Amino acid sequence: MEKRTETKKAILVVSFGSSHLDTLEKNIDKIEQQIQDTFTDYRVYRAFTSQMILRKLKKTQNLHFFTIKEAMEQMAEDGIEQVIVQPTHIINGIENDRMMCDVMEYTDRFKKVRVGRPLLTSVDDYKKAIHAMMAEVDLEEGEMLILMGHGTDHHANSAYPTLEYTFHSLGYHQVLVGTVEGFPDFRNVMTKLEISGAEKVTLMPFMLVAGDHAKNDMAGEEDSWKTELEDAGYQVNAVIKGLGEMRGIRNIYIEHIEAVM
Predict the structure, then answer these.
(1) Is there a contact between 7 and 229 (Cβ–Cβ < 8 Å)?
(2) What is the extent of the structural domain holding 166?
(3) What pLDDT was estimated at residue 5?
């Protein structure tokens, strides 16, 4: 363990966070563990960007995690000289913009600060993410896979229609992408589903963690995508699995860290 104290290099893994400890462990912990196992001469720190989640974890579980600013302060105090900040964000949206602002305030405290890219940045990222996702599902003839993304009113929401388009261009025509808070919305997905003539549907979140949205909005027992699809006569299989559980997805984050090293 001596080596730890000498380490002047750190990777700060920045996530939106989750108040669901089961999915936190399966997704965020898993990513951080793989990062630590891959880059053994770096210390790995964690920061969450959602104030709501940080407050909830403190109140309900008495768990304290750093904000980005607290993590930057801690790393400076620990004598870290070189920092790589790697977000686990899916798109270059609001959370990522805010993260950049917070990180910029601390650049003068370190010799070097570099920032990795969110999951879907380059065309290559989309393709790799799609192949990683499809390795996890086994669709029958005439079955559709519907992915629930978060969505945003930030212009980066264009990542979601781009994602669906890329699925189709790679030959995965039985995939539809919808979002909770952006475009395409669920109505849009339902229209395309009807046109497809499919009768069976597998629902999965296209989110880092399978938390609130996945458990309630997607697969909940009332007012969810699942219940609406069932009411419309579809046979539905809901899979509660975050992207962080998929090795192929975790590998993309690893590549994004390597790219800025």
Answers:
(1) no
(2) 137-240
(3) 52
* Cis before 118? omega within 30: no
CA angle 164, 50, 11 (to 5 degrees): 85
User: Is a pLDDT exceeding 70 seen at residue 25?
Assistant: yes
Are 113 and 172 members of one domain? no
In this structure, the answer to whether residues 198 and 159 fall within a common structural domain is yes
Amino acid at 236: V
**Active centre residues (catalytic):** 150
Same domain? For 105 and 180 the reply is no
For 100-111, write each residue's pLDDT tens digit: 999 999 999 999
3-state secondary structure labels for all residues of 97-144: HHHHHHHHCCHHHCCEEEECCCCCCCHHHHHHHHHHHHCCCCCCCCEE
Count: domains in the chain: 2
Query: From CA 183, how far away is CA 161, in angstroms rounded?
Result: 7
Q: How far is it, in rounded angstroms, from Cα 182 to Cα 81?
A: 39
Give the 3-state secondary structure of residue 190: helix
Inside any domain, residue 130: no
